[in-house]
Amino acid sequence: MSDPMTVLAMTGATTVVAAMATSAWEGTRERVVELFRRRGGERSTALRAQLDGDAELVAGESDDTDGVRDDLVRPWARRIGALLREHPETADELRALIEEVSVPPAAQEWSQHITAHAGGAAFGAQGPGSSVHVHHHRPAVGESPA
Among 24, 28, 92, 93, which is least packed by CB within 10 angstroms? Predict the structure, then answer.
């Protein structure tokens, strides 16, 4: 198990990277720049450029957005971890950023096909707010069950 600051850094990194290329990005970027302000104002421009460049990578990779985000989490976890070691007082600000950044989960659509044979019954459900629809169908004479 990792120490709490490492877990916090990873959670912060995941939150920041997840916000890239979403409607929450502008506000998140500014919050991150503000979080890092203790490291020196001259670094703000470079930090903003790094954040914007990473967000462009996410936005530009339509085939593997999740893969790009996965690749970016570790470096951001290292940066945030270093910040927390140098300035442990930023932990509360980071926690607030994590709580306040609301990235809506990507729309998810699941499909599930369940078949019962020989008079059997089968039911299934997936995900939050899912429902089960039961369709009874008897094959026509001479038709084999699907």
Answer: 92
From the CB of residue 59, how many other CB atoms can be counted at a distance below 10 Å?
14
pLDDT, position 142: 74
Which residue is listed with tokens 């990578």?
57
Rounded CA-CA distance 28/26 in Å is: 5
CA separation, residue 138 to residues 114, 132, 146 (Å): 15, 19, 10
On the question of pLDDT at 127 being above 50, the answer is no
Would you say 79 and 12 are in contact if contact means Cβ atoms under 8 Å apart?
no
Q: Given this model, what pLDDT does residue 104 score?
A: 53
In degrees and rounded to multiples of 5, residue 101 shows phi and psi of -75, 115
Instruction: Write down the pLDDT at residue 112.
Output: 61
- Least Cα distance to 72 among 22, 112, 15 occurs for 15
Binning pLDDT at 50, 70 and 90, where does residue 22 land? Answer: confident
Structure tokens at 48: 């903003």
Phi-psi region of 39 (alpha: psi -120 to 50; beta: other; left: phi over 0): alpha
Q: Is the pLDDT of residue 59 over 80?
A: yes
